[in-house]
From TrEMBL:
Keyword Cell division on entry: no
Coiled-coil intervals: none
Superkingdom of the source species: Bacteria
Main location: membrane
GO CC annotation: plasma membrane
Keyword Transport: yes
Keyword set, alphabetical order: Cell membrane, Membrane, Protein transport, Translocation, Transmembrane, Transmembrane helix, Transport
Name of the protein: Preprotein translocase subunit YajC
Transmembrane segments: 15-35
Cell location: Cell membrane
Membrane topology: Single-pass membrane protein
GO process annotations (BP): protein transport
């Protein structure tokens, strides 16, 4: 009778492992495949936006190419051609195409 009680207790512990193990494994896989890469992309984007400076040639999210003429904490003024200046949110910048120091 004592042996059957130990066997029943071990079966219950193994049952929990089989029940919740796949859920934990699924969460770990989703973390490494979805959440962690997104956090890395967000970190590199924030570093890029923080490093913007006057004279950088940038591309906006809408695909507009321009050169930064003025920049504040949240506003960025781009020179599109010789006469046209456009104001954008700093977060609308998608990528830096060239830096003023590289030219």
């Amino acid at each position: 009778m004592l042996l059957s009680a130990d066997a029943a207790a071990n079966t219950g512990a193994v049952g929990y492992l089989y029940t919740y193990g796949p859920l934990v494994l699924m969460f770990v896989v989703l973390y490494f495949l979805l959440i962690r890469p997104q956090q890395k992309r967000q970190k590199t984007r924030n570093l890029m936006l923080g490093g913007l400076k006057k004279g950088d040639k940038v591309v906006t999210i809408g695909g507009l190419h321009g050169t930064i003429m003025e920049i504040t904490d949240d506003i960025c003024v781009l020179r599109v051609n010789d006469a046209t200046k456009m104001t954008f949110d700093r977060s609308a910048v998608n990528a830096i195409s060239k830096s003023a120091a590289k030219e």
